[in-house]
Amino acid sequence: MQRKYAAPISRRLIVCFMVVMLVPFILLASYTIYLYSKGAEGMLKTQAETALSSDAAFMEAIIQEYRHKAYSLSVSETINKVLEEDDPQKTSENMKAIYEEMYAVMAGDTYKAAASIVSSTGNVRISTHNFPSVYDLRTHSNEWDNSNIITLANRNSDSLRASMISIEDHRIENGWEILFSVLRRTFSASGEVTGYVIIDVYCDAITAEINRSNLFTDVILVDKSSYSAISLIHPHIYGGFSEFPFLREVDSDTYSVPIIGTSLELTATSVNPFIRESFRNWAYVIAFSLLIGILISIILSLIFSRSISRRIRKIVSSMKSFEKGNFGIKLERTGIKEFDELSITFNIMVRRIELLLEKTREEEAKSAEAERKALESQMNPHFLLNTLNTIKALAKMHGEDDIYLTTIRLGKLLRSSIDNRKSNATIRESLDLAECYLQIQKLRFGEKLQYRINCKEDLMEVETPKLIIQTIAENAVTHGLGEKVGEWFIEIDIRERNGMLCISVSDNGVGFQSIPSMDDLEKSQHTGLYNIYRRLQLRYGNDFTFNISSVKGEGSVVSITMPMEEQ
């Protein structure tokens, strides 16, 4: 039953894509929000704790590294001797050895940290960089200077021989921001403090390696003993807890990890508190509609996709059947306007192609057969054969050997023309006919005409269309050599190249005025060459070449390349 109305496919596709793509996309996004507000919250917390623990371990390693460097310098005999003597003159004498030892301990870290040595009186002052003025005890010995690590160390007399770490002395020294300082005292043999070894660690040594996971809005280095802090993400923010209000609040978005062996800890704030809050507000509202929407979209997707794909598969199947040569195929109407138009157009196209192919095959068969017979009939003079036999008999009776041999050779040529049972000849047969023709001409022109034939024995049984070589040789004698004064020479060369048979006939005649095209050959006196070209074209299509090269006054070469055919 034919439908009265065929709905446009565009309308169906629009509805289909809106339902199948837009609805699931919106619902899936909502579902993602819901999942994030639940499952991803725990995941984010775990990732944040892991990342911060990694940063704390890095900080611990850095602090321990510079603690060890400070210790190594504080136990140096050379440095202890200089600090104990507290004599600038003697210090200058040992300066080279001191610097070598300091740079050896710092081991190329001078772009990350600066090491300074100062005696308890301030008379001896040595640094790997410009000596910091805040450590010059001659001018900075104020006990109220809480930012000076030497002042802080002097206040803390409980652990004289332990390393001290401070983040309070945040300043720019030698063009770098100082993040923290490590101090180690030096002692005389009697146990008195003779000086201080201080290593100032720059922010650049730390900040580039902190928060590489980008999970935090800020990471704070906190000193719980002095209630001071500094941001490792924004080092210009530092000071007391008043600079970091969130440190006084308890929040699930804040994470803290202590740095073992110090009074320091790392505190970080999560990057997603606001997003998480908005997720929580929408998650429960969307969850139910999300599940229903997914089920509906799956069902509708199946219905629409099957409805459209079934018709498309039927059309594709019919086209593949037509591709295999089934011209009787016919598409039926589907009820969709565009598909019906495609079916009608396809059916019309199939019928037209079928008619055109039948007509083309019939015309080509008739044309090829008619032209082949017409071309070969030009060389088919049956009536001469009996006459030649009579002449041959008379010549033999009267002892005319030249006439006798000539009639034999001419008879071979005529028999080849008369024999319509086959259109092929072997190379051996073709060369035999060409040589018969040349021998006849040699009787006429004598030693003036010379020729040479080059062909390997393994090519002799290869078949070609007959009357090819002899016709080219005849054209060379008639049109190339006829007007030439002096000796005539023709060379026939047969060879195989890359699976193709190559035939070349050259002469030293007068040559062409200009290289003729195939249309020129058809209209000129060179009908023999044109006949050869057309016969090869009908037989091989585009699988052959036919070339004429010529130099006026020097000669011509006719070259043919064609597929090889074994007998």
From TrEMBL:
Membrane-spanning parts: 12-36, 282-304
Domain HAMP: 306-358
GO molecular function: phosphorelay sensor kinase activity
InterPro entries assigned: Bact_2-comp_sensor_kinase, HAMP_dom, HATPase_C_sf, HATPase_dom, Sig_transdc_His_kin_internal
Keywords linked to the UniProt accession: Kinase, Membrane, Phosphoprotein, Transferase, Transmembrane, Transmembrane helix
SMART domains cross-referenced by the UniProt entry: HAMP
Location relative to the cell: Membrane
GO cellular component entries: membrane
Name the record gives this protein: Sensor histidine kinase
Annotated source species: Candidatus Ornithospirochaeta stercoravium
